């Protein structure tokens, strides 16, 4: 009985979840002149989707920002994940003194409303020469990723029995080696999850990129894309949607590609 | 770890200290800030719109802990040990991968009066097609919580799945031998052992919901007539729209203190109870 | 200057390894030029006669048009623009204000007249342009009427980026289908709205976000333009019977079904094109959006100046909006920026700009290719018309914010306007008390 009910329920719920995605694709594939809010559910056929995408690509000049955004979305979360894992490891495995408060200190980084730290960051960046440099953006994106990954890793590591650590110490392994050879490999799925979530966040970031950069080859892709939407006459709805869809392709692909890691069997059940 | 902490301190804490300083001043973005003590805080607490803002923020916190966390947990438990589970989870993850620009546009035309949602309700003969989803309070806050849940549920599910997969096999097998299954299995084995990741998901949800900004800003900008404003929107409005940096700073300090207090209270309980286990 | 750049060099030196790596990643052919462009005129104090000026605007969607003008200016005066666009006006204004504290100052930037510009002038952030104005008014390149919006304590600052007149665009097919013609009087207009309402078509577009002030502005300026102007200067109260009457009239029009749902997320140009609304009350900058959708002026859509609500007024009120283009006072290449502004107001630049935008120009000597707009531009210069500053610029910021919220609530649920007006007036009292 449950064998049928479970997949059926998940399918129905999944379809419900995909309904807005359907709307996105259907309307991104309409010619601007054909779009009307009274017929949003109507499917569209033809090549308008690609025309709209090409329109976005040329108009928002996305080609110059794709490369830098890709660099940010890889280096940022990578550094963030590693630092976060270090923090989690130090607190849980090494039993750092006042670990909770260290943790709260790092976690506090997620608490500040992003909108409020933007302007001081901009002023600081402008005065140190980090403004409008790729390095500056990599730095801020790495830092932004640290608290989340520290949180997840701290709690994930706490699920690993401490005797694993003690046993390794008895075997004469150095702390670094334990971290690198035992803890990190055991947390593969968590690390990948953090990485894809943060990479997606950075890929989709608008505010930091907008405020901390200016030239075409440093600015990430989202600020370039928002020029489509503006009070003073942006592009037509289908073009905006096509643009949104186009820049979502890499992140959707990333999710698709990494799903296998989360399927059963790679867990650390053996410990 | 030291460089990690240091860099967080410089890039995130310094700007916040500056904002805190500004909250005791009058500053319009030009010239130099002028010290006025607690005036901004006084002005903030005497503004009647703050009440709406607090109420909406509370709705967001409650709604976010119940809806996307609940759905995420449900999906995770149903799929974590199932064939093709990852593929069944995928529809819930895709919304997170789609860029904010598209999500904002899609939801505003789903939720506009006579928009896609109303048309769908109408087509299935369901009631509610006449609702002005985004125009009437508090309905607008509820439907926006729904839109946010659409994006967040998959992420929560993913985090729960990681937690479920790291649960050792032995207790689960033992419980199976004892004849536990379904709800009892979940209640007595999975739920307690899922604790570390539940803490992550709930902790992050509390923080995120207190800071709710993007969805509301895209859909209603806090309107009509400030009826769907959250604290983060109030803060943005004071700072960026009104250029009252001090006033916005005061809201932001209060928001931060509340968020920090809520998360410390929650984490302390969760993390220290666990240590006792 | 010295220690700033030493500091920078120090910071950069410390980060060389990373920077090199990045340069390697991003090093395509165009990079050399861009690197130079980021610091125009800073390396040596000498005036250069060509190069790139850093330009910031909150009108990100206008990038293609700015690019065209930039190409023209490079050809004609040797300077082009390094464009950075924001699409959120609030984030933009915070960014520009903060940038004056840093060495990343914009050279040229767009802004808003009224309160917003006064603030920058008070702090000495924008370069005076009195010479440019004197010359341009003498040569007829800028109408003298515009000068008041750019004058503070007898000096002018910035030059007009554009002007836009607020008119009613209408869908010609919808009008033709119902046997309607462009109105001559307010009564005609109300008759049109009635006819359409009977067919279930909302005559006018309205929204509760940002542009919620539009119909308030139209109704009040068309009923009592003196009162409208007095509101902006704090000499009249929002609870004045004249204002209350206008709100009540507005409420009646909403109740009568003249307006579209205020929460529609669809683009207004799409609504007009589909015939979901018959008329749009917008500035002439909107022509570009209609043309982009493939609508043809004179065939698919047309426009008319909104007749006065009160027919006894001797001149027709026409709302005008003018956005400034400014040069930063402390920018290293201020002189070049001022030269650029001199070029900008000239007929050649304006012909290029206005036609790229598909809009009117403030410069009567510019050749506007769109006949309808050209005629409107001429009409606006005659004695029949009284130009009235747009509400958005005419109202001080705190009052404006309260008013936009109030109007947004009113169009959503019209009712007794008094509580809303009282809230706005309370903000106004607080503001004018500090002035």
From TrEMBL, chain A:
<feature type="transmembrane region" description="Helical">
    <location>
        <begin position="135"/>
        <end position="153"/>
    </location>
</feature>
<keyword id="KW-0812">Transmembrane</keyword>
<dbReference type="GO" id="GO:0055085">
    <property type="term" value="P:transmembrane transport"/>
</dbReference>
<dbReference type="GO" id="GO:0005886">
    <property type="term" value="C:plasma membrane"/>
</dbReference>
<feature type="transmembrane region" description="Helical">
    <location>
        <begin position="70"/>
        <end position="93"/>
    </location>
</feature>
<comment type="similarity">
    <text>Belongs to the binding-protein-dependent transport system permease family.</text>
</comment>
<keyword id="KW-0813">Transport</keyword>
<dbReference type="InterPro" id="IPR035906">
    <property type="entry name" value="MetI-like_sf"/>
</dbReference>
<feature type="transmembrane region" description="Helical">
    <location>
        <begin position="232"/>
        <end position="257"/>
    </location>
</feature>
<keyword id="KW-1133">Transmembrane helix</keyword>
<dbReference type="Pfam" id="PF00528">
    <property type="entry name" value="BPD_transp_1"/>
</dbReference>
<dbReference type="InterPro" id="IPR000515">
    <property type="entry name" value="MetI-like"/>
</dbReference>
<keyword id="KW-1003">Cell membrane</keyword>
<feature type="transmembrane region" description="Helical">
    <location>
        <begin position="190"/>
        <end position="212"/>
    </location>
</feature>
<feature type="transmembrane region" description="Helical">
    <location>
        <begin position="100"/>
        <end position="123"/>
    </location>
</feature>
<protein>
    <submittedName>
        <fullName>Carbohydrate ABC transporter permease</fullName>
    </submittedName>
</protein>
<feature type="domain" description="ABC transmembrane type-1">
    <location>
        <begin position="66"/>
        <end position="258"/>
    </location>
</feature>
<keyword id="KW-0472">Membrane</keyword>
From TrEMBL, chain B:
<keyword id="KW-0813">Transport</keyword>
<keyword id="KW-0472">Membrane</keyword>
<keyword id="KW-1133">Transmembrane helix</keyword>
<keyword id="KW-0812">Transmembrane</keyword>
<dbReference type="InterPro" id="IPR051393">
    <property type="entry name" value="ABC_transporter_permease"/>
</dbReference>
<feature type="transmembrane region" description="Helical">
    <location>
        <begin position="245"/>
        <end position="267"/>
    </location>
</feature>
<comment type="similarity">
    <text>Belongs to the binding-protein-dependent transport system permease family.</text>
</comment>
<feature type="transmembrane region" description="Helical">
    <location>
        <begin position="188"/>
        <end position="210"/>
    </location>
</feature>
<feature type="transmembrane region" description="Helical">
    <location>
        <begin position="58"/>
        <end position="80"/>
    </location>
</feature>
<dbReference type="GO" id="GO:0005886">
    <property type="term" value="C:plasma membrane"/>
</dbReference>
<feature type="domain" description="ABC transmembrane type-1">
    <location>
        <begin position="54"/>
        <end position="266"/>
    </location>
</feature>
<dbReference type="InterPro" id="IPR035906">
    <property type="entry name" value="MetI-like_sf"/>
</dbReference>
<feature type="transmembrane region" description="Helical">
    <location>
        <begin position="142"/>
        <end position="167"/>
    </location>
</feature>
<dbReference type="InterPro" id="IPR000515">
    <property type="entry name" value="MetI-like"/>
</dbReference>
<dbReference type="Pfam" id="PF00528">
    <property type="entry name" value="BPD_transp_1"/>
</dbReference>
<keyword id="KW-1003">Cell membrane</keyword>
<feature type="transmembrane region" description="Helical">
    <location>
        <begin position="5"/>
        <end position="24"/>
    </location>
</feature>
<protein>
    <submittedName>
        <fullName>Sugar ABC transporter permease</fullName>
    </submittedName>
</protein>
<dbReference type="GO" id="GO:0055085">
    <property type="term" value="P:transmembrane transport"/>
</dbReference>
<feature type="transmembrane region" description="Helical">
    <location>
        <begin position="92"/>
        <end position="110"/>
    </location>
</feature>
